[in-house]
Amino acid sequence: MSLLLPTALILFLVSLSNALRPPFSCDESDARTKSFPFCNTSWPISTRVRDLASRLTLDEKIKLTGSSSAAIPRLNIPAYEWWSESIHGVSPHGMGFDLVGSIRSTTQFPQVILTAATFDPHLWYRIAQATGDEARAIFNRGEAKGMTFMAPTINLFRDPRWGRGQETPGEDPLVAAKYGVAYVRGIQGDSFEGGRLEKEGILKASACCKHFTAYDLESWNHTTRYRFDAKVSKQDMAEMYQPPLEACVKQGKASSIMCSYNRVNGVQTCADRNLLYEIPRRHWGFHGYVISDCDSVHSMFDGERYKEPEDAVAAALKAGIDVNCGIFFLNYLKSAIAKKKVSEMDVDRAVHNVLSMRMRLGLFNGDTSKLEYGDINGSRVCSKDHQDLALEAARSGIVLLKNELGLLPLSKEDTKLLAVIGPNANNPLNYLGNYEGPPCRKISLLQALQTCGGGITLKHHQGCNAVNCSTAFIDEAVEIAQQADYVVLVMGLDLIQEGEFIDRVELGLPGYQEKLVTAVADAARRPVVLVLVCGGPVDVSFAKENPKIASILWAGYPGQAGDLAIAQTLFGHNNPGGRLPVTWYPKELSKVAMTDMRMRPDPSTGYPGRTYRFYTGPTVYEFGYGLSYTNYYYEFIAVTLDNLYLQAQSPQNALLNSSRWVSVSQLGKGYCKKIKFSAYVRVTNHGDMAGKHPVLLFVKSGGPSMYPRKRLIGFESLTLRAGQSEDIEFVVNPCEHFSYADEQGKKVIEQGTLHLVVGDDRGAYPIRIVN
């Protein structure tokens, strides 16, 4: 018996060691792997994949096409999980990371909509880098089943009621494009400028550009995302919906793309070969794998268009899907082959793409601890650097919407008693947003205010029974407000009001929140501060117009450091500099059908259009709006172009003088490169407080035309000391920045006068376009 204990102990330790190993193939310590040519790392990946695929049976191939890929023990191939989430930090919402091992928390950055408000691509890149490091660290410990992430979400936040708009970088395609590129490069291990991975190969993690395409509806007026047919014009597709996805693939070099649940112009996106294969692979140079959104192939099977489940499977596979998130491929792919709806060659294509990705991640190169990224360990998870970055992002994203009388920042000397009222005042988990993970730190706003305010006394009252505020305790909240020197109301939304599966019904604050805010403001001794925690915009016109509500802050879903960022902003330790990445519309927009996908307005029907580019109705706050505790002044100090003369690429393509517009393709790539010019803008901090400030450059149309009325063409974030000036160079490419899509989706430039605008219209710089 005495020998059994050491043996059992040894077996246990071996078992534990194996459990803590990340899934990889081609283990040098396994004699079987030495004879497999696909383990020869000196061979090109394509050659290794062909060798490995040739050794697989049909059943084994099919196992590799599901999101939970089973092991193939005879070839020493472990199981692999394709579905992991990392929208704003590593999350257990997928199947790849459960965070129940030795690492149970990860850095939770602000939800993307607030991060976008920084207009700072370098910050976006650093957040993605940190997320990739934490993911690799957990994977290297053997506590994760995969390194392929379903992020970033770069669909446009077209309708403010969309529950998942919080996951996006907002409504502008340029912002969404730059965000997608920065995120993909950061998490995959590329340089900020791109190009590193083309030489060095192994990915730190795999990023997925989603969702292809025109997806921005969950459930509205009995229409669900599974049955919604988005009617999108060629013009809107080329100008608005597709550019972020194109940039994510072409510039970011994303290794994965995902189809969406909806149809587009009658075609299910997961069965659209043009969308998933022809465009990305043939025109954008995509090299990676295509994954379906989870259970989207299953949702295609309706017994009508796809009479049998094998029909849906065949349509998806032939369209270009390589990995089915779900079990529909696993259940019906073999029978689809037997019924001759697809061939084994179609499966081979998918297998080639999925194995190539696993090899690019280094999972067929032997012990991953000996490879690049193998030295990233658990010390990177929740590291001080990452937590400081989460705070920096929250501080930089918070938007000051109103600050009459200079109420903010609050004076510690004048604040002996601070009343903090509202359903979002004392619940840090509400600050994370959807697809969240367990954060590294949990402190409440009350604790943060106590820290930042020094010796102040706090009185807190929830004000409502919950964020939906179906019951409001107005009399109790008013009594506390009457006693306080200052009052901060913390209101807004939560994931019950907006999220996946949940679109909003209307745009105001829910329940009795507005009544509570107004009553407290009327009763307070001094004007009050309103803090809004929410992803989507809300109509707070009542507060904007009420002089008793002197200051309004939008904090988005600010992540694990959001409480501290808000407190620091209220007491002046942080100068807010964020700008709105989405238009804040009035409640009346709720009357417009959410299913109307048109961007341009239709005066004949009263349709107002969507996004700041085309919307013609009133706004609560405009896209790009944001105040500061200091004042910034802009001036154009030099623009190296006044008149743009359009010239044809060759005599055969001579431009017609009678034509009002010309095709960009008619001008030629060489000409388009040659006519780039620079606009130099001087930015001066005229206040007495340092601040981080995004500078946004727009082009505005000079008159009626098909141009967007206003269009963002460049942005840069800079930090200025009090009194400091700095010059920014914006490089303008007229073929890109002065063109728009015609009704056929072709880029054209129109004759006339455009204006470069930074700040307000008073400093607009005219550019005349002639041929």
Characterization of the model:
Helix 2 (45-54) crosses helix 14, helix 5 runs antiparallel to helix 15 (384-397) and helix 12 (309-319) packs across helix 13. It is globular, with a radius of gyration of 27 Å. Mean pLDDT is 93; it is low at 1-5, 7-18 and 651-658. The protein has 771 residues and is of the alpha/beta class.
- Into which percent range does the helicity of residues fall? 25-40%
Count every helix, treating DSSP H or I runs of 4 or more residues as helices.
24
Give the CATH topology of the largest domain.
TIM Barrel
Task: Give the structural class.
Answer: alpha/beta
- The span between the termini is 96 Å
Number of strands: 27
Largest sheet: spatial strand order: 11-16-15-14-12-13
Percentage of β-strand residues: 15-25%
Query: Sheet bearing the most strands, described?
Result: 6 strands, mixed
Mind telling me the C-alpha Rg?
27 Å
Give the overall pLDDT as a whole number. Answer: 93
Shape: globular
Lay out the secondary structure:
Elements: H1 4-19, H2 45-54, H3 58-63, E1 68-69, E2 80-81, H4 112-116, H5 121-140, H6 173-188, H7 196-200, E3 208-212, E4 219-220, E5 223-224, E6 229-230, H8 234-241, H9 243-250, E7 256-259, E8 263-264, E9 267-268, H10 273-283, E10 289-292, H11 296-300, H12 309-319, H13 328-338, H14 344-360, H15 384-397, E11 399-403, E12 417-421, H16 445-452, E13 457-461, H17 474-483, E14 486-492, H18 513-523, E15 528-533, H19 541-544, E16 549-554, H20 562-570, H21 611-614, E17 632-639, E18 643-645, E19 661-663, H22 664-667, H23 669-674, E20 677-685, E21 691-701, E22 710-720, E23 725-732, H24 734-737, E24 740-741, E25 747-750, E26 752-758, E27 765-770
Parallel strand pairs: 3-7, 6-8, 7-10, 12-13, 12-14, 14-15, 15-16, 18-27
Antiparallel strand pairs: 1-2, 4-5, 8-9, 11-16, 17-20, 19-25, 20-23, 21-22, 21-26, 24-25, 26-27
Helix pairs in contact: 2-14, 5-6, 5-15, 6-9, 12-13, 15-20, 16-20, 17-18
